[in-house]
Amino acid sequence: MHLYDLTIHEARKLLDAGEISAAELTQAVIDRILAVDNAVKAYLTLTPEEALEQARAADAARREGRSSPLLGIPVAIKDIICTAGIPTTCGSRILENFIPPYDATAVARLKAAGAVILGKTNTDEFAMGSSTENSAFFPTHNPWDLTRVPGGSSGGSAAAVAAGECLGALGTDTGGSVRQPAAFCGIVGLKPTYGRVSRYGLVAFASSLDQIGVMTKDVTDAAIMLGVIAGHDPLDSTSLDVPVPDYTAALTGDIRGMRVGVPKEYFIPGMQPEVEDAVRTALEVLADLGAEILEISLPHTDYALPVYYLIAPAEASANLARYDGVRYGLRVVGDSLEDTYKQTRGHGFGPEVKRRIMLGTYALSAGYYDAYYLKAQKVRTLIKGDFDRAFEQVDVIVAPTTPTTAFRIGEKVDDPIQMYLSDVFTLSMNLAGICGLSLPCGFDSQGLPIGMQVMGPALGEMAVLRVAYAYEQATDWHTRRPPIRSAGR
Length: 489
Ligand code: GLN
Fold this sequence. Notes:
The protein has 15 helices and eleven strands. With 489 residues, the chain is α/β, with parallel strands linked by helices. The chain has a single domain, classed as Amidase signature (AS) enzymes, CATH 3.90.1300. It has an eleven-stranded mixed beta sheet, with helices on both faces. Strand 2, helix 4 and strand 3 form a beta-alpha-beta unit.
């Protein structure tokens, strides 16, 4: 077993027992990055010197008797989350040289817990995408098959976790960007309830949907990382002022009597049959563990995609108005102030971001606002109502995370609708503000991971983690590691 293959909780045991040091662990992960990242391309920025310094500080703290779950654990941060003194590009040319003067609250909490920050991971530009192919710099490759995408937009974080290039990572999920790449890369991805984790220092894409989540090798690690980053933050007025439970207390393995809903709308014609089979088999495992499986209906599911692609671009068009080349980021000087704005934005944003800005501006413009944006908000309420009613009957909802396994690099880049469709099963949860976790539940005939989603009501992370952990412990999917096959094969 290599040190870079350890989970966070396994590494902590070895660190606490003095069998390994954080410096050794961090060096092993850095060596792993140097060995495989030219093929995987998970990282945009690496900070090895700072990481080793933080690791040595963690070792010193441990010698003085301190111990905490993340002390000395090397982690990665999606490059849309601000890190003081370290570039934060959002995968965009417009912020290529942006170095934030402050840390996001989630990053500050990781640091305060003693975590070691390895660097910043690749993302679709401003988190708009499902494959990392919209990164302005380069696409990330799926460690299970380097000719395929890792999913997105947190594809860099997912690939890094899967390939042993970090022990855990932060991602962000506006419409599925933590869960979908987790499914494609065979890892665990948890999107917390809207407001559970502070968004302070998370560069805004769609503010009513964005949430920072955790990406890990197993469910225990997700519970540990969430416990560190969750909680109220006076710097984010949408963060919830409710106590953070001990999420690891949910990891009992006992789900007897829990009610699991299976939404019939999440098994659609055209989905990959192996995905459906794997999830149905997983439901049998849950039944064997004593859960009660109930068919439910979320009748407005079909509207989630069109509603999301009105609301998210509308919010994005407003949020991205700040990139004008005046205060920070790229500036391309034109003939006049207006021309400078045009040149800067014209050169700074990629095609998908421009498409969203146009869609959003149109949906918000006078004369169309009622027909598009306002209508979408009303349907959003109906979608939330579906979940409210479902959670009166069941404790959690289980469904596939994605309709297919990882697709090939290049396969969907010219067809935005096909790309958008890879999120059909994840978008609703962001619209409803609830929580969800994707975990591995099998492999297809190509050897690609399949993900299953466990959804819970607002602040229902404990129930989600409980069910996910019980399933995980009854199976061994989470113990598999990718062979990192080369692209030329
Ligand atoms: N893929 C979706 C989009 O392109 C979701 C992205 C996300 O969750 N950040 O908007």
